[in-house]
């Protein structure tokens, strides 16, 4: 019998020790898609969280988003500390208040132990700067405000072992896989 990943499944469809390159894998079934249109002047992160809660999304994937923004906060890492414990002073925040178009939005949604929804996503948006179209990106944070329309599409994952929890290595909330 060859040494293929499909030969290393444990009961319940969860992969065992298949690769030294993976910290873990999760499983579930994507049985439905949720599409929502956010109102104007809504915080994008709060709007996605509310959409997930109102549609009963415990675990999901942000498949796409299109629309316009009036304000954005682009958060990026400027330095990775040796201990991996990223704090605010390790990040760069760029605040823009001008018309922008969402180019992409992707990420995951998972439930924490306390039952709260965690949304982890990255956003890119284009805008005009010095008479040229410029695209910027970063982590989805609070303070990104919708404009004329924003439509978000979420793939809902059911029967899943995917959760959100604190990663003690980084002291940040991350995706976790229960077995």
Give me the strand/helix succession: EHEEEEEEEE
What proportion of the residues form beta strands (DSSP E)? Answer: over 45%
Major beta sheet summary? 7 strands, antiparallel
CATH architecture: 2-Layer Sandwich
Overall helicity: under 10%
Beta-strand segment tally: 9
Derived structural class = mainly beta
Q: Could you give me the name of the CATH homologous superfamily?
A: Hypothetical protein, similar to alpha- acetolactate decarboxylase, domain 2
Give the number of domains: 1
Mean pLDDT: 88
| Shape designation | globular
SSE topology:
Elements: E1 29-38, H1 44-54, E2 60-77, E3 91-96, E4 100-111, E5 117-129, E6 132-139, E7 145-158, E8 162-167, E9 172-177
Antiparallel strand pairs: 1-7, 2-3, 2-4, 2-7, 4-5, 5-6, 8-9
What does this molecule look like?
This protein has one domain (28-177): 60s Ribosomal Protein L30, Chain: A (2-Layer Sandwich). It has one helix and nine strands. It is mainly β and 179 residues long. It has one helix spanning 44-54, and strands spanning 29-38, 60-77, 91-96, 100-111, 117-129, 132-139, 145-158, 162-167, 172-177. The protein is 6% helix and 52% strand.
In a few lines, what is going on in this structure?
The chain has 179 residues and is mostly beta strands.
